[in-house]
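*** Residues and shapes ***
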Amino acid sequence: MKLPAVAIAAAFACGIAIGLWPPIARQATSHALLLIGFAVPCGLILAAIFFSTRNDLRIAAAISMSSWVALGVLAAWIGQQPLPADHITKLAGTTHLDLHQPLRWHGQLRDEPQRLPWGTGLEVELSGVEYRNALVPARGGLRLVFAPHPNDPPLPTLHAGDEIVTLCQAKRPQMFRDEGAFDRRAYLATQNVDLLATLRAPELIQRTARARANPGVLLARVRHRLRDTLDSLFPTRPQVASVLRAMLLGDRSFVDRQESTNFQKTGVFHVLVIAGLHVGALAAFLFWFGRKLRLTPGWTILFTLTVLAAYVAVIEQRPPVLRAAMMAGIVVVGRVFYRRLDVLNSAGVAAFALLVARPLALKDSSFQLTFLAIGCIAGLALPWLERTVQPFVKALRGWRDVTRDAAHPPLAVQFRIDLRTAARWISSHVAAGLVTPTENAFVGGMGVTFRLWELLVLTMILQIGMLPLMARNFHRVTLAAPLVNLFAVPLTGVVVPFGFLTLGTALLLPTLGKVFAVPLGWLTLLLLRVVQWFAHFPRLSYRIPGPPVWLIMTFFVLALLLCVALRFAYPWQRHATRSLGGGLAVCALIIAIFPFAPRWSPGKLELSVLDVGQGDSLLLVSPHGRAMLIDGGGSFGGFSEQEDHNGIDPGEDAVSPYLWSRGFQQLDFVVLTHAHQDHLGGLLAILENFRVRELWLGREVSLPKLARLEQLARSRGTVVKHELRGHTFDWDRAEGQFLWPDTLSSDAASAARNDDSLVLRLHYGERTLLLPGDAEKDAEREILAENDAAAMRADILKVGHHGSKNSTMPDFLTAVNPSVAIISAGEDNAYGHPSPELLERLNTAQARVLRTDLQGAVHLLTDGEHIEISCYVECNPLADQPLRQAQAPDFPEKTQKQ
């Protein structure tokens, strides 16, 4: 077997995937099955040994592969074992611990206090928490942030390893319970962060014991010193410092959202994430540097591995860095045996080792993308280049020496002859003293051209090969990526080693370090300008829904067969390569253009109230499939109320992924009820990610964020309209009417108000929906005065203002008389929504209550007579009962379909 490590890693990964399959994963906690899962691979291994001793090698190989699959299933089951009883995620929300109040937390600082754009961050390894006058042992991670006010004193002096006690109210990380939404809670858990908290005052944290000297503490201080040194080298250019922090030290805290988006649009976001490109560039520089120091091969390898290990330790052992360092280490160690290792086999060894250490990494998109990239390079790009370009690159070596021609294939020999002919022509047209330099420049330029062509081919194959996962995970197609990578990859290959050289010099000789920082800053600015220039072309990057599973599987099967065809020189190889390459290109084209229709229910009106935290976002789909989005969320519950804060964007992280999960690329209408951040903030991402035909607004407000929204809409060809009371529309047999606001003033208001909200009533068949935005009691009173009781009745009420006590007042609720009331509020929000008074009013009205903070996204479908209800989390018990008989005599009995 030419690629044994690849086969073993693939079989082991298949076993893990089987073990993670939900019907099988649910059995992972069964001790009996764990024993069986241990016994089966042991039996298979013994069987493989038995057949190998009898020289039945094919049977032995098949059984051996089966044993690796069985071991993978066992590894997946072991990896899914429950957390210990004292882990904070087990304690939170139980009678053992209530997170709805400030508590005194005990722990140890994992790292030095980290400077952030909005304050200071502290990573705490928890040891216990004081609860009900007792110290409860607790494990887990707490991320603590202090955002100081102007008159606040500084934090006490703290260092990595210090034992601390802090008083704060900690919460589980915010997550959006919508189909397709990014699971931030699971993402932070991979970083060992289980709780988030804000430190309200420096006096609420104190050190109880100083750190003991150990390697971890020393590495943390070195890491802190490197960050401070980097900042000191670029005091007047924070943008350069922020990008270098990300590229060299893995800290993206200071890279602003727009800069990060530019790197994503141009397909070079990998430059900001320390992984294979950065580690490979550093390893190549170290190996080259060792050779320049005239070290022996053994000492060169030892020097390279030692510095790489120190680098990984200093920037923290994050999975992408570990994967890249392991790959580089395997390649470097291969030099000890004077062997050129197969890249695929080396990747197989690295993948197997990482999966043994952490089987659940198989689910991590970063893991998948890393090894997919290696597979594209080693399985597709390199074999193709070896058959096409590489013979000509090798032919450039010693091109003047005729005696070497016989060592090359015929086409390369002809190429060498043509080179010498061109050289003779050059020598006859230049001065005698310039003949050799001119010839060398000509051949050198040809070599650079070949290298650029190789890089272009590599980036194009990478973009095509990674397209399915990029579309599934990030919903973006970047047409400019191959071209931008032609600039970004060589620049990164220079910036990374030169950046570390500058950092090291600045630590030892600060003055000389500042001299080195000048060209380093220029190179980084050049990289930024290239990325920014290409990012300004909107048609070079666009968003798409994730491709269907069958298309992804077809793509990868074709890619795997193409890898096999490129590696074997059979007579049919050329025809197979062309056919498989054509099929792969067709699949890639289908993924990129996404010609599939969105999923909707013909003949039914749909309302989906999405979980966007403390905000509103509603999707309405007409009986003929036209889509209307009302509000986009936008309140992320961060550390600052500034609208430009780099916090969570529900429009990007919740609403857009949900729409993509349904296959939507276009929205017919986007409606903004009023210009508060928790309704408006996410709509900027919506307008950027989707084609929007019309934007409907209520009263005009003189706010910069609303002006940006309108400007963006008009720049993208979206028609902007203002709606008010009395406006109606016919929407595929669903009749819509705006009940509020009353009038539109000619002058824009200076501030948005809840009572300026657009209030929409939608009637379809015998069923009615009422969507009042954040309208409060004054607006409700006016609406009641302008409409008779029959016009106000509705089966479904989206409760106003997230369940505030000042909305959905008794008179309004009596007039509407809803069967189902849906509250959109954030989990454990700071406003106490929904209020107990409001819940009591709904209970008195016998309305069924569904809440996004408990049930996640709430979906309703009606054919005009019956109503179907489903929730992201299981609907509460009341929602499983038939809808009650409405009091209005003209309504038939309402039933629910599950």
In short: The first helix runs from residue 4 to 20. Residues 605-639+646-897 form a domain with the Metallo-beta-lactamase; Chain A fold (CATH 3.60.15.10). The radius of gyration is 31 Å. The chain has six domains: 4-79, 88-212, 214-340+499-539, 377-474, 549-593, 605-639+646-897.
